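Budget justification note: compute hours in this period were largely spent on complex prediction jobs such as the one shown. Inputs:
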Amino acid sequence: MVSNQVDISRFDEQSLVELVNHEHETPDKAICIPSRTREVALKAGLAFLLTLAMAFIALPVVALFLKSPLETILRSLYDPMVLDALRLSLSTSTLTTIVVVVMGTPIAYVSARFHYFGKEIADSLIDLPVIMPPAVAGIALLMAFGRMGIVGHYLSAFGISIAFTTLAVIIAQVFVSSPFYIRQARTSFEDVDLAFENAARTLGASRVYTFFHVILPIAMNGLISGAIMAFARSLGEFGATIMFAGNFQGRTQTMPLAIYTAMQGDLDVSLCLSIILVAISFVVIIIVKTMTRRVIKRC
Amino acid sequence: MLEIDIKKRLRDFDLRFQLDIARGKTLMLVGDNGCGKTTLLNLVAGLDRPDKGRIALDGRVLYDSDNGTNVPPEARGIGYVFQSYALFPHMSVYDNVAFGLRTRRMAAGEIKIRVQEHLEAAGLWEIRTAKAADISGGQKQRTALARALIIEPRLLLLDEPLSALDVRKQATMRKELRETIRACAVPCIIVTHDLRDVACMGDQACLLEQGMIAQHAGAEEVLNWGLCTDSISNR
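Corresponding output:
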């Protein structure tokens, strides 16, 4: 009898607990169903937007590849216009990147570490070419270094002409691409803890030794990704170049200019050059992403 | 002998510090956060410039506002262990310790012998190829100390050398640190928040308040100042 009583009381206890749980679950479920629907709807909406955005960017790129048969591209690669543009673009962009890195690195370091009179103005001036329309940059360069420009006027007296030469292409590229490097380099230098610099100095390193052996290696990944961005910007430069350097095959006609010129005659050449530029852009993005990821991982 | 008599205007107050530390003696510097302890170390190391005053080490003037002397940090011969250790993350433990000798353009063979000696003494020889960013807190502390000691400094500055370690490691490292400092026999300034550090490693102690010396006595007397570890770190 005693054991039976115990069993009954256990049964009662269990059913009471189940009943309580059940009562608690019912209103929860009632609230959950609409909230789940809302969540699914939100996710579906976001997925649709993302797909739309991706399609908007991917479609023109895919169309570029679909509209250019491989045979035509390979044949166009031997076109003198393509070869000249490719050679000129790669050589001028490489030289531009070297100039930007050599001149931009000390500027970025000073901007990151020191406060001086007029720093805000200097920093704004460095960033200006990013916002300035490239065509305006081209006219501005022409007014400065053109034959009748404020500096070019004196240079032409010595028989030096800059406008409409390969040098003008490089100057235009340096003008528009330098902020891409300097901004990235400045951020990279700012991220280097001042304690590293101080530690190196107390260990007997001069400022120059500290810069080359401590600061530069720590900031290196950021500097490389900045240089790659500047290289890519130089490679795609169009407006300032056509205004300041003109459009002469083999001398000032870079790839974007050749695409524009070829569009009026041979579309295959345009497509071939475009595909080369797209491929380079992809490589640049992958390298920059890898570099940035490494920096984040190290931090 | 280290002689300090300096004045520096900070954002909220004036830092005024006048004290001499004899060879082989350790001064423990305690005080609130932002009372000027680290600034004082930076001024002595030459990383920051006083407004006025004089700093001399073993009779050699490092800074004198009267005659414009200001020896740059790289020429002061001071070993400085930073609070965060400031180990160069792109270098190995070996290269970190060798850095101070390389800046002195010492022969590669000589560098190798001396670095090995210091790394073995610090128990770091086995991990010499590891990147500084990948080693433990205790190993970082030993590496930072070995890097500061290998240049044979005439003064040691340590900014909260044990604060980045867990409590269990602190006790062991405190004893190690004391032995190493004693063996160097140079004047030493240690910034700390922990009164156990003062009692264990210090010869004299100084309480800094708003840039001024509020208390100065033998290290054993610190307990009579009515402070406790928590009260210092939370004040």
